[in-house]
Amino acid sequence: MPAGVRSAAAGMAGIEAAEVADGVYRLALPLGIHGVPTVSAYLLRGDDGDTLVDCGIAAGVDGGDPGPDGTAAVSAALAAVGSSLDRLERLVVTHAHIDHFGLAGEVVRRSGGELWMHRRTELDLEKYADPDEAVDRRMLMLADHGLYGPELTASSEGLRDWLPLMPSVGRPSRLLNGGERFATGGRTWEVVHTPGHSPGHVCLWDADERLLCSGDHLLQVVSPPVTFERGFERDPMGSYLSSLDRVRDLGPELVLPGHGTPFRDGARRAESIAAGKRKRLTQVRDLVESRPRTVFELTTDLFGAAPLTGAQRHFVIAEILAYLAYHEVRRVLRRTRRPDGVFLWSADETPEVVP
Ligand SMILES: [Zn+2]
User: Fold this and answer.
1) What's the CA gap between 140 and 5, in Å, rounded?
2) What's the CA-to-centroid distance between 354 and ligand 1, angstroms?
3) Same domain, 71 and 99
4) Does residue 353 lie within any of the structural domains?
5) What are the two backbone dihedrals, phi and then psi, of residue 90, each rounded to the nearest 5 degrees?
6) Ion ligand 1, residues whose Cβ is below 5 A away
7) Are 269 and 286 within one domain?
């Protein structure tokens, strides 16, 4: 990176921007919601135009004014690495969670660039088009598993905290399936579909230098949440474990994650995340096999009785549901309705029907 750019980056309060591989820049964009400070977007420098991977939410520099379209922070970060919205020929969104996608509509409107997203992100887009319906659906799901009263309301409404940070809902101009390739700045990137954290999650892979833009599929500090969402995917945990295997087999040398700074040895990280998820799978199975339980009871068994915020409680329950769904699909655990309508989970002892 030219020295002038580096000093511009260093002097920019509230924005971190740094070259992390030849022609690849990490932009730490402010979030500050639900306890997550930043999202890491990446700028892939091209000869005629640049590619941006993820774009954050409406935000200003250092808590300042986000501007009329919310692009103040992302514009400042692009300027710090010698790019601009005008130079973007393409925005690739790793997945349509609002912290990665919120500004996509405005970024492509301002840049005139393309918006690339996996075709299975359409489920998220439907949710954003009709948030009341999405909140209702989540409420029904949580009620089915034993939540009620103010706790039920608080745990169902998380989406409403995020919506004001998304000035418009971006519409993809190219729907991805995985396997697509594009060349920019002397590199060839391949789209790798990695469902699990979200059904429409993709990573970008540069096989020559073994670089992986991992979105939220691989994170260094936390195990990425894998949550069951009614109407989305039957077995998100199963998908996630397969996607971890896939990325482990690629053997990324440098991982560029969607939160935090780049780290080495993606295969080792993929294995350690998978081991943690498998340990939880066993714990959930053992608890339910020892005696039937509701998800509400499992929450206390696994996470203690410490008070959780609504958003935390939803995440905890939705991840437990992903573990249960995994076992249900494999006919290890099953659910029945108690007389009060709440689902009760137990060992599946139904004999296999031999046709
Ligand atoms: Zn995410």
Assistant:
1) 51
2) 41
3) yes
4) no
5) -160, 140
6) 97, 216
7) no
